[in-house]
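We modelled the chain as a single entity of 261 amino acids. Its sequence is:
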Amino acid sequence: MGLSSICFFLVLAGSLLATQTAKKTGTASVPEYTYKIVKAYPHDPEAYTQGLVYEDGYLYEGTGLNGRSSLRKVRLETGEVLQRVDLPPELFGEGIALLGGKVFQLTWKAGTGFIYDARDFHLLRKFSYPGEGWGLTTDGHLLYMSDGTPEIRVLNPETLKEVRRIKVHDGDSPVQELNELEFIHGEIFANVWQTDRIARISPRTGKVAGWIDLSGILSPMYRRTPDAVLNGIAYDPQGKQLFVTGKLWPNIFGITLVKKQ
């Protein structure tokens, strides 16, 4: 075999090895996105954002921390809190979802959830679940709940019983610490806690279909504590605008996604 043939086969073998490695690590075909800020909106810098939903021009926000947890209806353009109900001080509020004229809200470690009338935040009933509650969203039929693990629970909204679980993975690697969730165009968008990344997840297979990198969207000078991390995703289907924020952030950002080259 001549030298040129040997070089050809070495290059070919290296290419095949790189392809196999990429497939194993989930990097071969997973697109990555950055962002373009369309508009910055005011946000209560004391709000420890745990859940965010957009509907009919308003944001619904669930906040956390013991003694400061609440459910709020907020005017997007001004940040004005139009409606609010506070949780008991011993409870740490978590994710929220709107479905069928009701707001569902989780708590962190208490294993207790709340269902409110979306019009006046009148408490309709409580429900229980095992383990921790983190993020919550809906596809219009079912509820999807994160608990800090790589698994997303699918719940029946009438009985609040678990229907199945989605095991989220990027290639062969499970994706840990999934937090706030939003269902957008058939995918689950999930904040990964303490990072500036959002995973786009197939609800059918659990496979990560893309990554959104929001590094730099908020200046470090406004992150007053180590807890002031990205957390909060909402979507306006009419305006086709994605809203993101974080715990104790002074802004909510309306963004569009830009695919990385």
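As a brief sanity check on the tokenised model: The longest helix spans residues 3-25. The first strand starts at residue 32 and ends at 42.
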